[in-house]
Amino acid sequence: MSTPAQIAANRANAQKSTGPRTPEGKAVSRFNGLKHGLDAASVVIPGEDPADYEALANDFRRQFHPASALEHFHVETLIRSVWLKRRLQRTEAKLYRALFAEGPDPEDLDIAALTNSPVARLIHKVFAQIASLDRAFFAAIKELRRIQTVDEGACMDLLLDAPLPLDPDQIRRILAAPSEPPAPSVPGAVDPVLRR
Asked: Which own/partner contact pairs does 117-123 have at CB distance under 8 Å and 24+ positions apart?
């Protein structure tokens, strides 16, 4: 049992170790418990370049032009899947180097990966996570394309409802305002979209 003096000393000592107090100290210490970064809350972890992540994200956003919250969700899934897969591939290479350090002949490295050694088990976990990211990536691509095809289909419906012939300027005007339904046609009246 602790004496009152020990309890008082512990409390006084605890007041001195309350962790970092400055924003810089907090920023550094937030990654103290990070071991591998596979489950990290932050997408970019120490050792990774935030500019690389932003470049990847911008490429996907430019390619898919997400317009709705659902499209943004699927594009973010694509970005995260690719980013984490790159991290896992670097981890996989390190694990193979560790497996090689265990002593197998370089020609038998593939067989060593099938053993029950701790490193081989980690390699299998990395494979499983890469496969999971691939499934998430392709599911997001499929859903994103389906959503965007439906949106394009609505634009095509507007085009098909318009009287023919259409010149390229008329098509651009129709596509620029896809949310407006075409005006009902009255026999003998000229459609205002087609009037120029």
From this structure: 119/95, 122/95, 123/92, 123/95, 123/96, 123/99
Q: Which is nearest to 81 in space by CA: 162, 164, 141, 160?
A: 141
In 10 A of CB 77, how many CB atoms?
Answer: 19
- The per-residue pLDDT for range 96-155, each reduced to its tens digit, is 888 777 776 666 666 666 677 788 888 889 999 999 999 999 999 999 999 888 766 555
Region for 80 from its dihedrals, namely left if φ exceeds 0, alpha if ψ lies in -120 to 50, beta otherwise: alpha
Distance CA(29)–CA(43), nearest Å, equals 17
- Do residues 133 and 38 touch, judged by C-beta distance below 8 A? no
List CB contacts of 63: < 8 A, sequence separation 6 or more. none
Q: What average pLDDT is seen over the chain? A: 76
Report the predicted TM-score, pTM, of the whole model to 2 decimal places.
Answer: 0.56
Question: Is the CB of residue 67 less than 8 Å from the CB of residue 73?
Answer: no
* Cα–Cα distance measured from residue 163 to residue 118, given in angstroms and rounded to the nearest whole number: 70
Q: pLDDT at residue 61 above 80?
A: yes
